[in-house]
Amino acid sequence: MKIKSHKSKIFLLFSNQKGLTLVELLASIVILSIIIVTFTTFFIQSAKTTSMSSDITDATYVAQTEMEEIYHLSTTTTYDDTIQQLNQKYEQCANDVTNLCTTIDGYHVQVTFYDSADVIDTATTLLKNVLIQVHNSSNKLEAQMETKLLWDK
Q: Do the domain assignments include residue 124?
């Protein structure tokens, strides 16, 4: 007998014809809206972060590629020959042979050579600091690399 009464209570619960009141409907819509807006802001922020990190990664790759090329030149040529070879690829910024500029993959690349303060045997070698800065189209710095390279005289 208890089984019938239990089944009949469940049947009555599911066969209730009252429906939802307007207050219940509005409350559920408000709760769903809050949840949807919260998750939407998370997705938007995630997309912005992904885009920004992708731009920085691309700019860093450009800087690394240029730095590797200059390093290779430092091991195979003299400093003056390196500057001459780079002048074929780069333009001089501000009429300075040690400050070179170009555009690679939509990024503005600036390479600067300047003397190092480190003590070395200057009779046979030349130590220079090399600074590579990569800017995006709105001139915001996206990547920067700096190293010291040694050239034979």
A: yes
d(CA 120, CA 95): 29
For residue 41, the enclosing domain spans 19-152
The pTM of this model reads 0.70
Q: CA 48, CA 152: separation in Å to the nearest integer? A: 46
Determine the Cα–Cα distance for residues 101 and 132; give it in Å rounded to an integer. 10
Is 98 inside a domain boundary? yes
User: Residue 132's closest CA among 66, 69, 77, 72?
Assistant: 66
Spatial CB neighbours of 32, under 8 Å, sequence gap ≥ 6: none
Q: What are the structure tokens assigned to 35, written together?
A: 């949840």
What digits encode the pLDDT tens for the residues 45-81?
Answer: 999 999 899 999 999 999 999 999 999 999 999 888 9
